[in-house]
Every structure is written in structure tokens, then in C-alpha cells.
Amino acid sequence: MIAKLLPALLGLCILSAANAVEIRDPGSHFFDETFGDMTEEIENARDDEKKAILIMFEMDECPYCHRMKNTVLNRSDVQDFFKEHFLILSMDVEGDLEMTDFSGETTVQKDFALKQFRVRATPVFQFIDLEGNPIKRARFTGATGSPEEFLLLGQYVIDKEYEKMSFTKYKRDKMSEENNS
């Protein structure tokens, strides 16, 4: 009996291993290093043939930022997908580090976040096109409900669906497609 079940069990083990998601530190596997010059980051993103830049505006005490890092941004499937398509930066909304914004002006992180992007709650995930402009419909405030929703947000930007519809409508359409198939 066991001899007959062994091939099936082995197949399940292989299938599970193939679908396994590795948990990795988002600090070293999700975010790219930056020296704080956004004009240089645009060039890096272009040179690396990325679709856009993704900035996560965050702060240390933010429970939703921690939740995203511990349940979504730490997953290898999320990390691999986003690293392939986007240059990903972290920005401290309370930070005093000097930086250069997308227009080449010197500022500090907290002013960049508040004055240029009106970030008042965290986290905020803002996609920036390769000209240095915020993609208006590609901004997500708060923690996503799941890793799958965050991956869908990335696909929304890659496919430039923001030119046609809001992310909410895109997500609703995708869920409807899945339910009908």
C-alpha cells in the first residue's frame, strides 16, 4: 500500500517545494540602495530597463509599514517580481537626510515626502515614471490586504492600466475574470 502511495506523495512534495515562497529580509532583498539623488535614480532605472521607480514612504513607528515588511515585502515571489520591473526606494517621512529631488533641487527626506508628495499617513507606495513624474493613479496608501494584491498593483503599473482606470476598478475586473474562469 505504501509503495503505491509513495509516487503520489513524492509528487506532492515536489509540487509544494516548487510553489514554496522563501522568506527574506526586505532591507537587503526588496529595496535598492540609494545615495539620495533622484535624478541619478531615474538614469539607473532607465539603464536597467525598469518600468518605473517605486518609492515606499514609511516611518519607524508605523505598524502598517512593519506589517507590509513582515507579510508581503519579505516574500521571495514579491521581491523577485518587483526587482525585475522596478527600482525600489525607501523614504523616511521623518528623515532629515539631505537628498536631491527629481527636478535636481536639494531638500531633505521629510520635506520631499510632505511637500512634494503630500504624504501624511504611511505607508504610501508611489510609482514614478522614468521622467520623474508621479504616476497619479499608481499611488497606494496603507497596507495591502495580501501579497497577491500587492503583486496585482505592480502588474497594474507594468501594463499601464492606470491610463485607463483606477486600481480599484482594475482589481475588481481581475477578480471578476478569475471567478468566471
Question: What does this molecule look like?
Answer:
It is a single chain. The longest helix is centred in the N-terminal third of the chain and has 17 residues, at 2-18. It is built from 8 helices and 6 strands. Helix 5 (76-85) packs parallel to helix 7 (147-158). It starts with a helix and ends with a helix. The model is unreliable at 1-18 (pLDDT under 50). The strands form 2 sheets. The chain has a 4-stranded mixed β-sheet with strand order 2-1-5-6, sandwiched between helices. A two-stranded antiparallel ribbon has the order 3-4. With 181 residues, the chain is of the alpha+beta class.
Most strands sheet = 4 strands, mixed
Give the end-to-end Cα distance, rounded to a whole number of Å: 37 Å
The number of E-state strands comes to: 6
How many structural domains in the coordinates?
1
Overall residue-averaged pLDDT value: 91
Cα-atom radius of gyration:
19 Å
Sheet-strand content, in percent, reads 15-25%
Strand order, sheet with most strands: 2-1-5-6
Structural class by SSE content: alpha+beta
Summary tags:
8 helices; disordered N terminus; 181 residues; globular; 47% helix; alpha+beta; four-stranded mixed beta sheet; 18% strand; Glutaredoxin; two-stranded antiparallel sheet; single chain
